[in-house]
TrEMBL record, chains A, B:
One of its GO terms (biological process) is tyrosine biosynthetic process. This is Prephenate dehydrogenase. Keywords: Oxidoreductase. Residues 1-287 form the Prephenate/arogenate dehydrogenase domain. Transmembrane segments: none annotated. InterPro entries: 6-PGluconate_DH-like_C_sf, NAD(P)-bd_dom_sf, PDH_C, PDH_N, Preph/Arog_dehydrog, Prephen_DH. It comes from the Bacteria. It holds the Pfam family PDH_C. Gene3D superfamilies: 6-phosphogluconate dehydrogenase C-terminal like domain, NAD(P)-binding Rossmann-like Domain.
Length: 297, 297
């Protein structure tokens, strides 16, 4: 099957890299408004041809929208207006409520599968595309009952070929949970970079004293503002709630520090340590059951 | 030269691993109050013998204190009381003001070299010791003029053998800068873990939705509370200042989100992106000069 990638960057490009190794896809058509990215995508063989959107829609069986979430909301409608019932459209955006809302009542809604492959790096553009990015990561499909079953199967197959574990959620639930688990950590990282840049006069000190700890905590602060601005905007309600909670936690640390409450600080850190168990996959059974149930419904 | 390691954990153990590969050290004596750590350090060959402190002091030429900074402040005095003018003591603590203060007027002050090899992982104990931990990292020596020159040379050689780049600072300056660049990022990470643990009901969601982004931002939240409690206590004044600035930055994000100030959020992220340049080592020249000057004085 022929594929069109609308926006050939880190995510779209990395998908192509791994899918090229399978027999699942044929020709890859790239659509990108950025001439530098277009040229690079052609040069590196990520795409076979750079074409205009209408040409891509005339030639591709599977269309992947991998552009910032605000633009995706407009482009998805253009695409649904111009495809037929055999073609399949999916997106990779980090917020799902907005795009699911705009397509909700479209006559071609069934051809669209709302996806979120949870993977990435702090880099962007076609040069950032890497092999194996999605291996063992989670691929979330939202509002799956609104998609035609043949379209759903194709996107599920693509996710499986990329090595992802499939998960299904309601779009609004997705946005809430991803605000807490992913979007907040981007803000915490951007704010950490700004703090250190403001407070530490010497750039050389930052470079010298940044052990691997600071580097990993601040890594996401290198992420693309063009990509993250609309994500934060789409998800501002849940993100504000997460930020409130985060600021509360920081205030607790500050208060305990100020009043030399050593045991309270120790207790906070011991509680925080529990994240290791969860990230190691040792989640509590009752939680597992809740999710299995959600999946089944 | 024979070596004693007081506290055989991540840092002391990793030092031994790499120094064993050189001809620079002979026998390694371990002192550790934790019987499980002692046994593991012997079993894995990190140390040749587990001994009491007085035995270690009788046999070792170089004594490395690698225990939490509050205990180190006491142990260093015990050690200085019981060594002779040929022996050398150094520490690896992440705060330097406290330990430099307690030894300041000691008649054996010259035998002590206040060190901070800026390296680590989120793990602790002798099993966490790894090879190459210090390669290309910064090793800071504080208040070097208070150390005897022969003692200083030995510790400098050890740092160089471990692959570190040497840097020199005043102890109080060290504590200020390390609060901003390292200690704050530990608090930001602990608080992030607590936020997600509090706000996200489903542990399975955390596991599934934690892309590599969240994992790297929250990694330091797995760190040892026993090690970090006294560091935060020693450095609370600078850390409070850093936390204030950090909370201010987060409030800016929150306010801009609330009032849909998209361009302001974009501007904050673009400023934060500058951390990439600095971590890549492309520091501005005027800053470089400032530091070279500090080094020379």
């Amino acid at each position: 099957m022929n594929m069109a990638v609308i926006g050939i960057g880190l995510i779209g490009g990395s998908m192509v890299k791994d899918l090229r190794k399978t027999n699942y896809i044929g020709k890859v058509f790239g659509v990108d408004l950025n001439p530098v990215h277009s040229k690079e995508a052609l040069r590196s063989g990520l795409v076979d041809e750079i074409v205009a959107l209408d040409v891509a829609l005339a030639k591709a069986d599977l269309i992947i929208i991998s552009i910032p979430v605000d633009s995706a909301k407009h482009v998805v409608l253009d695409i649904l207006e111009n495809i037929d019932k055999t073609q399949i459209v999916t997106d990779v955006g980090s917020t799902k409520g907005g795009i699911c809302e705009v397509v909700k009542n479209h006559k071609m809604r069934g051809r669209f599968v709302a996806g979120h492959p949870i993977a990435g790096t702090e880099n962007s553009g076609p040069e950032a595309a890497i092999e194996g990015l999605f291996q063992n990561k989670t691929g979330i499909i939202c509002n799956k009952n609104e998609s035609d079953s043949d379209a759903l199967i194709v996107v599920e197959n693509v996710y499986k070929l990329l090595g992802m574990n499939l998960n299904y959620m309601d779009a609004d639930e997705h946005d809430k949970h991803i605000a807490y688990v992913s979007h907040l950590s981007h803000i915490s990282s951007f704010a950490l970079a700004l703090t250190v840049l403001n407070i530490e006069e010497s750039e050389k000190n930052i470079f010298d004293m940044a052990g691997s700890g600071f580097s990993s905590t601040v890594r996401l602060a290198k992420s693309s503002p063009d990509m993250w601005k609309p994500i934060f905007q789409h998800n501002s309600a849940y993100l504000e709630r997460a930020l409130d909670e985060y600021i509360d936690q920081l205030h607790d640390f500050k208060t305990f520090l100020k009043h030399n409450k050593q045991e309270d600080i120790h207790m906070l850190m011991t509680k925080a340590n529990d994240i290791r168990r969860i990230l190691d996959g040792k989640v509590k059974e009752e939680n597992k059951n809740t999710i299995e149930h959600e999946k089944a419904t």
